[in-house]
Specification:
The complex is a heterotrimer. By secondary structure, chain A is an alpha/beta fold. Chain A has two domains: 255 residues, 3-Layer(aba) Sandwich (Aspartate Aminotransferase, domain 2); 122 residues, Aspartate Aminotransferase, domain 1 (Alpha-Beta Complex). In chain A, helix 8 links the parallel strand 4 and strand 5. In chain A, helix 2 runs antiparallel to helix 10, helix 4 runs parallel beside helix 10 and helix 5 packs across helix 6. The longest helix of chain A has 37 residues. Chain A starts with 57 loop residues before the first helix and ends in a 6-residue tail after the last helix. Chain B is an alpha+beta fold. The longest helix of chain B has 9 residues. Chain B is globular and about 35 Å long. The model of chain B has no long low-confidence stretch (mean pLDDT 92). Chain C is α/β, with parallel strands linked by helices. In chain C, the strands form four sheets. In chain C, strands 2-8-7-6-5-3-4 form a seven-stranded mixed sheet, sandwiched between helices. A four-stranded antiparallel sheet of chain C has the order 11-12-15-14, covered by helices on one side. In chain C, strands 1-13 form a two-stranded parallel ribbon. In chain C, strand 11 and strand 12 form a beta hairpin. Classes of the chains: A alpha/beta, B alpha+beta, C alpha/beta. Chains in contact: A-B, A-C, B-C. At the A-B interface, helix 15 of A face loops of B.
C-alpha cells in the first residue's frame, strides 16, 4: 500500500464566507405570502427594531450550504470506524418514511383518535424495543442517550424514595462514558468509581467490596467500552440486588449483541438504547438522536407519561400513573427519529438484527486479528463489536494517537475514537459496524499498516497531517483562551 | 512531554505531591504549580481563581486549571486566607506555561506556618517524580 | 439483505482468520445464562415496497393530516417550509456526519453551527448561544439549573404559570431529585405574569417568564426584568414561538440573563412534537456555566480561519460528574435547518412574516368577536389567543373538523380556570377563507 492507493484524494471544493459576509439588503431567499387580511398595527411600546440577519437570495443560500456540505465527511462518503458510536449505514428508505406527509405534519396535542397512525408507530416501536431487550416497560420520550440515562437515574430515585431508602451513591466503572457520572450527578448521586480488573472487565469482588445500602445501584455498559463482554454481569447484578440496588444498562454497545443476549436475563432493571447508534438513524452532525428507556415490569409505573397503549384495535396515550417521574420532553421525544428506527426494525426483522450483531463482531474481531501485529492490543481477549489499541508502539517513534488519526484523514477515513476509554493510554477504539464489507475493511487495515510504517520511516507525514482537508490542524488553544463564539 | 532531565526545578521552593509549590517564610506565602505540572497539563486556557478573603484548609481545592482537553484541581499546600490572586492570569493563562515559577496563582496568609515544614524539599520532589 | 454486504464465502474466510468455526463461536465469552432464548418476537421483515405500502396504511390512519388546517400552536407551529431546506439539508454530508470532533473534516457542520449560534444571538439580543438542547422544555430545565448554579446559595426558582404546561412539567421532573424548589407565579386578569408577590418568596435564584406566553400574550419583559433584577434574582425568559421576535422587542434588550426556548418554527415540521430544537443563549459573563456544545472561531497552522468545538471542559466527556450538564448528542442537523431558514428569510423577511402572522391572528380575533365570542385577554398577543364562546363550542368544533379544520385547543386539561375556552393559533399558512369558515360556523 502506498499513498497512491489510499481511498482519499483531493478535489475542487469552494471557499464560502460566513452568511453575514455575503448577501445584499433587499434580497430574499424564500417566499413570504402576500397578506389576504388587513394589516394590523402592533403596539409600539412592545415593538422591536427588527433583527439584524443578512438578506440572501435563494441561490446564495443553496450555494452556501451546498459548499459547506462538501467540506464534510459522512457515512455515505466512507468508513467511519468510531468506537462506541456505531456509525452504520443510514438507510434512505428510513428518510422517506420519516417525511411521510401525513405523519410528519401531526401536531402533538391532537386528540388520540385523530392520530392513530403515529400512535401505532409509537406502540409498535415500544413493543419491538421491549422484545429486543427483554424489558417490557418502554418510553420513547428521551431525546438522546444521555437523556435516557437521566430518565433512568430519575427512575432509580423514584424507586428508592418509594421505599424510604436513602441512597446517595452509584457505582460506575472506570471505562464508563462521561455521560454516566454526569447523569448520575444530576440526580444527586455521587459516583463511586470501580476499577476494571486486569482482564478489562469488572470483577465480582470489587463490586461486593463497595455495594451497600446507601448505594442506589450500578451503571454498566455491556459490552463495555473496551469492546469486552462483562462476563460477570449476572453475579454483579445479584450482589447489587441483594443490597436493594438496581442495575442500569447503558445500551450504547447493543450493536454487538442483538438477539444474542437478553439484557433482562443479565440482571438489568433499566436500560437505554441509542437509536442513532444501534438502530441506524443518522447522526446529523451531532443529533438528533433518541434514547428510549426499557424497564422491568415492576418499574414500569415510574416511566415518563404519556406512553402509547393498545386497546382492542385502537391506540391511545396513557397518562395513568401517579408514580410516573413525569415528562422529560415537551411532547413525544424525537418522533421523526423514532419513525426512522421503526422503519429500520420493520425492514430488518429478528434474524437480520441478530445477523447484524454477528457480522459487527466478526468485522471487529477480524480487524483485531489483522492489526494486532501492527498496534499493541489493549487487552488480548476476544472482543465484541469494537477493539482497542494503545499508543505504545507509536510513542516509541514520538508519534501520538492524534498524529495517526490526522494521517487517516489524509488517507480518506474518519479516524476511530481516540483517547477513550481513559483506562488505555492513547486509546484507539475501532468499531467498523456490520455495514462495512470485507474489501473495504481489508483496505482500511492496509492503510493503518502503511501509516504505522510511515511513523517509523517518515513521521513528518503524520505530524503535519492533515494536509488535504479543508483546513490544517486548528488551534484549539486559541479558541479556548480567546473564545469567539459568534460573529 | 518533557523528560525528567528536561524539567525545571526551583531550589528555593517547597513542593506538594499534587505538584504545587510554595515560597518562603514571610507573613504571606505565594502558591503556584511546578514545571512538571504545567508540562503535563499542556496549554492552559483558563484559570479559575478563588475570591479574595476566602479561607481554605491544607489540601483543600482552591481553584482549577483548564487546558483544552482536561481540568486539573489545584490544592492549597498550607491552610490560610487568600489575600491576593494573580489577575494577570485572567487574560493570559499561558503565563503559567511560559514561566511556572515566575507566575504565582494565589497569595495567602498562612493559618499555621509550621505546615510548611511538612512539604517536600526540591530533592524529595525530584525523587517523587523519578519514582 | 442489502445492508449486510458479507457473502457466505467472505464470512468463512474471515472466520478462518479469527480462528472460529462459526459466527456463534464469536460469542464464547457470553455465559449461557445471559443468552437470548429463541428468536426475538418481532414482526417478519418487509422489503422496501412492502414497507412503503405499510407506511401508506399508517398515513391513511391519520384523520388529521398535512391537508388539514390545524389552528393550534401551543409549542408546535405550522409554518411553510421552503423546498430548498428539504433538499439541501438531506445531503448526506450533513445528515450522516458525526459530531465534529475531527474539525478538519467537519468544517461544514462547524461553520454551519457557528452561523446558527450567531443568528440566534441576534434574534434574541444575547451575547452567546449554544449549539442546542433537545427542546424548549429541556432548555428551560437546563436554564433553571444554570441559574441555580450561578446564584449559588439560593434554593428556589420561580416560574410563571403562563409558561407552557409541559415545560413546567419537565422542569419539575429535572428538579425533583435536587434540593431545589420550584414556585409558580400567578397570571393576572390581563393574561400576564403577576410579580406582585415576588419579593415575599425569598431565596429565589432565578425567575422564568415565557413571552409570548402560553396564552399568546406578549409579556412586558422590560418591566418584569426590572422588577426581577431589583429583587436580586436572575431573569430567565422562555419562548415557544421565536418568530415573535421578528416583531416584538427581543429578550436581551429587556435585560434577560438567560434565554431558552423552542426553535421548531424555523424550518422544522411539527412531526408530532419532535425532532425539536432547544435554543439557549446567555450573557457573556455566564458562558462558562452554560450547558451544551459551543463552536468557536480559530485559525489553522497556515493562519486560515476555521471553526472548532470549544470550551469543552464544561462538558460531560471531560468534566464528567462536575459538568454543566450531561448532554452529549443534541439536536444537530436541526440547528443547520433553522439557520438555513433564518438565512432564507433574512432580516426583512423575518419582520414581514412576523407582521403577517400578527395580522392574520388579529383578523380571526375580529371575525370571532363579530360573532359574539369573547377574546379573553385584552393584552397584545402575537399569533395565538384564547377565546370564550357564548355557547358550547364542541358542536362547532366537530362541524369544522368535518371540514378538515381543527379549531383550536380546549384548555380545561391544562388550566381548569380556562375550561371550555380555546387557544387558537393563526400563522401565514391559514388563508382568509379558512378563518371565515371558522367564524361562519359560530352561531351568535
Amino acid at each position: 500500500m502506498s499513498t497512491a492507493n489510499v481511498p482519499g484524494t483531493s478535489g475542487i471544493i469552494q471557499n464560502e464566507p460566513l452568511l453575514w459576509e455575503k448577501g445584499k439588503k433587499g434580497r430574499r431567499g424564500m417566499c413570504v405570502s402576500a397578506s389576504d387580511v388587513p394589516v394590523a398595527v402592533f403596539p409600539a411600546e412592545l415593538q422591536g427594531p427588527g433583527v439584524d440577519f443578512p438578506d440572501l437570495s435563494e441561490v446564495d443560500v443553496v450555494r452556501h450550504y451546498t459548499r459547506l456540505s462538501q467540506w464534510n465527511y459522512g457515512v455515505d462518503t466512507g468508513m467511519y470506524p468510531l468506537g462506541s458510536c456505531t456509525m452504520k449505514y443510514n438507510p434512505k428508505i428510513n428518510e422517506k418514511v420519516a417525511s411521510t406527509p401525513q405523519l410528519a405534519a401531526a401536531h402533538p396535542m391532537l386528540a388520540d383518535h385523530l392520530v392513530q397512525g403515529n400512535l401505532q408507530v409509537m406502540y409498535e416501536l415500544q413493543e419491538s424495543l421491549a422484545a429486543i431487550t427483554g424489558l417490557p416497560g418502554v418510553t420513547v420520550q428521551p431525546a438522546a442517550g444521555a437523556h435516557g440515562e437521566l430518565t433512568g437515574m430519575l427512575i432509580f430515585a423514584a424507586y428508592h424514595k418509594s421505599r424510604n431508602s436513602k441512597r446517595n451513591k452509584i457505582l460506575i466503572p472506570d471505562t464508563a462514558h462521561g455521560t454516566n457520572p454526569a447523569s448520575a450527578a444530576l440526580c444527586g448521586y455521587k459516583p463511586v468509581p470501580i476499577k476494571s480488573g486486569p482482564n478489562g472487565i469488572l470483577d465480582i469482588q470489587s463490586i461486593a467490596a463497595v455495594m451497600d445500602e446507601e448505594t442506589a445501584g450500578i451503571m454498566v455498559t455491556n459490552p463495555n467500552t473496551l469492546g469486552l463482554f462483562e462476563t460477570n454481569i449476572r453475579e454483579i447484578a445479584e450482589i447489587v440486588h441483594a443490597k436493594g440496588g438496581l442495575v442500569y444498562g447503558d445500551g450504547a454497545n447493543l450493536n454487538a449483541v442483538m438477539g444474542i443476549i437478553n439484557p433482562r436475563k443479565c440482571g438489568v432493571d433499566v436500560m437505554h438504547l441509542n437509536l442513532h447508534k444501534t438502530f441506524s438513524t443518522p447522526h446529523g452532525g451531532g443529533g438528533p438522536g433518541a434514547g428510549p428507556v426499557c424497564v422491568t415490569e415492576e418499574l414500569t409505573k415510574y416511566l415518563p407519561a404519556p406512553r402509547a397503549i393498545k386497546e382492542g384495535d385502537k391506540y391511545r396515550l396513557d397518562y395513568g400513573r401517579a408514580e410516573s417521574i413525569g415528562r422529560v420532553h415537551a411532547f413525544h421525544g424525537n418522533f421523526s427519529v423514532l419513525l426512522r428506527a421503526y422503519s429500520y426494525i420493520r425492514t430488518m426483522g429478528a434474524e437480520n438484527l441478530k445477523k447484524a450483531s454477528q457480522l459487527a463482531v466478526l468485522n471487529a474481531a477480524y480487524i483485531k486479528e489483522k492489526l494486532k501485529g501492527t498496534l499493541p492490543l489493549a487487552y488480548n481477549r476476544p472482543c465484541m463489536h469494537e477493539c482497542v489499541f494503545s499508543d505504545a508502539l507509536l510513542q516509541e517513534n514520538k508519534i501520538s494517537t492524534l498524529d495517526l488519526a490526522k494521517r487517516l484523514i489524509d488517507c480518506g477515513y474518519h479516524p476511530p475514537t481516540i483517547y477513550f476509554p481513559l483506562v488505555v493510554h492513547g486509546a484507539i477504539m475501532i468499531e467498523p459496524t456490520e455495514t462495512e464489507c470485507k474489501d473495504d475493511i481489508d483496505q482500511f487495515i492496509e492503510v493503518v499498516q502503511m501509516i504505522v510504517q510511515e511513523a517509523k520511516e517518515n513521521p513528518d507525514l503524520l505530524r503535519q497531517a492533515p494536509l488535504r482537508a479543508k483546513t490544517r490542524r486548528l488551534d484549539e488553544t486559541l479558541a479556548a483562551r480567546h473564545p469567539c463564539l459568534c460573529g | 512531554m518533557k523528560e525528567l532531565s528536561e524539567l525545571i526545578f526551583n531550589e528555593n521552593l517547597r513542593y506538594t505531591e499534587e505538584h504545587e509549590w510554595v515560597t518562603g517564610n514571610g507573613a504571606t506565602l505565594k502558591v503556584g504549580i511546578s514545571d512538571y505540572a504545567q508540562d503535563q497539563l499542556g496549554d492552559i486556557v483558563f484559570v479559575e481563581l478563588p475570591e479574595v478573603g476566602a479561607t481554605f484548609g491544607k489540601g483543600d481545592q482552591f481553584g482549577t486549571l483548564e487546558s483544552v482537553k482536561a481540568v486539573s484541581e489545584i490544592y492549597l499546600p498550607v491552610g490560610g486566607e487568600i489575600v491576593a490572586v494573580n489577575e494577570a492570569l485572567g487574560d493570559a493563562p499561558e503565563l503559567i506555561n511560559q514561566d511556572p515559577y515566575g507566575n504565582w496563582i494565589v497569595e495567602i496568609k498562612p493559618a499555621d506556618a509550621s505546615e510548611l515544614t511538612q512539604l517536600l524539599t526540591v530533592d524529595a520532589y525530584r525523587q517523587l517524580l523519578r519514582g | 439483505m442489502r445492508y449486510l454486504p458479507h457473502t457466505d464465502d467472505e464470512i468463512r474466510e474471515m472466520l478462518a482468520v479469527v480462528g472460529r468455526q462459526s459466527l456463534d463461536e464469536l460469542f464464547c465469552s457470553v455465559p449461557d445464562a445471559c443468552r437470548y432464548e429463541g428468536s426475538m418476537p418481532l414482526p417478519a421483515p418487509m422489503d422496501e415496497w412492502q414497507l412503503t405500502e405499510h407506511v401508506q396504511h399508517l398515513a391513511e390512519a391519520m384523520q388529521v393530516d398535512h391537508t388539514s388546517h390545524v389552528l393550534i400552536g401551543a409549542g408546535s407551529y405550522h409554518h411553510h417550509i421552503p423546498e430548498t431546506i428539504r433538499t439541501v439539508m438531506s445531503r448526506s454530508e450533513f445528515l450522516t456526519a458525526y459530531t465534529p470532533y475531527q474539525p478538519e473534516m467537519a468544517q461544514g457542520t462547524l461553520q454551519g453551527i457557528y452561523e446558527y449560534q450567531t443568528l440566534v444571538t441576534r434574534l434574541l439580543g444575547m451575547d452567546v448561544a449554544n449549539a442546542s438542547i433537545y427542546d424548549g422544555a429541556s432548555a428551560l430545565a437546563e436554564g433553571l439549573l444554570m441559574g441555580l448554579r450561578i446564584a449559588k446559595k439560593k434554593a428556589k426558582v420561580a416560574v410563571s404559570a403562563a409558561v407552557h404546561p409541559h415545560y413546567r412539567e419537565v422542569a419539575r421532573t429535572y428538579l425533583e431529585p435536587t434540593c431545589y424548589e420550584m414556585v409558580e407565579l400567578p397570571v393576572g386578569p390581563d393574561g400576564r405574569t403577576d410579580l406582585s408577590g415576588l419579593a415575599e418568596i425569598g431565596d429565589v435564584a432565578a425567575v422564568a417568564i415565557q413571552s409570548p406566553n402560553f396564552f399568546g400574550v406578549v409579556e412586558d419583559l422590560e418591566a418584569l426584568g426590572a422588577t426581577i433584577h431589583a429583587a436580586g434574582m436572575l431573569f430567565i425568559t422562555s419562548f415557544t414561538e421565536p418568530l415573535a421576535y421578528g416583531l416584538t422587542k427581543n429578550p436581551g434588550s429587556c435585560g434577560a440573563d438567560i434565554v431558552c426556548g423552542e426553535g421548531q418554527s424555523f424550518g422544522l415540521p411539527r412531526s408530532f412534537g419532535g425532532a425539536a430544537l432547544g435554543m439557549f443563549a446567555c450573557r457573556d459573563e455566564f458562558v462558562r456555566n452554560m450547558p451544551g456544545r459551543l463552536v468557536g472561531q480559530t485559525k489553522d497552522l497556515d493562519g486560515k480561519r476555521g471553526f472548532v468545538l470549544t470550551l469543552s471542559t464544561r462538558e460531560q466527556h471531560i468534566r464528567r460528574e462536575k459538568a454543566t450538564s450531561n448532554i452529549c448528542s443534541n439536536q444537530g442537523i436541526c440547528t443547520l435547518i433553522a439557520a438555513m431558514y433564518m438565512a432564507s428569510l433574512g432580516g426583512s423577511g423575518l419582520g414581514e412574516l412576523a407582521r403577517l402572522n400578527y395580522s392574520k391572528a388579529e383578523y380571526l380575533k375580529a371575525q370571532l368577536r363579530a360573532k359574539g365570542a369573547k377574546i379573553v385577554f385584552d393584552s397584545p398577543t402575537f399569533n395565538e389567543f384564547i377565546v370564550e364562546f357564548q355557547d358550547d363550542f364542541q358542536p362547532v368544533y366537530d362541524r369544522l373538523l368535518a371540514k378538515n379544520i381543527v379549531a383550536g385547543l380546549e384548555l380545561g386539561k391544562y388550566y381548569p380556570e380556562h375550561k371550555g375556552r380555546y387557544l387558537f393559533c393563526v400563522t401565514e399558512t391559514a388563508g382568509k377563507e379558512v378563518m371565515d369558515a371558522v367564524a361562519g360556523e359560530v352561531r351568535p
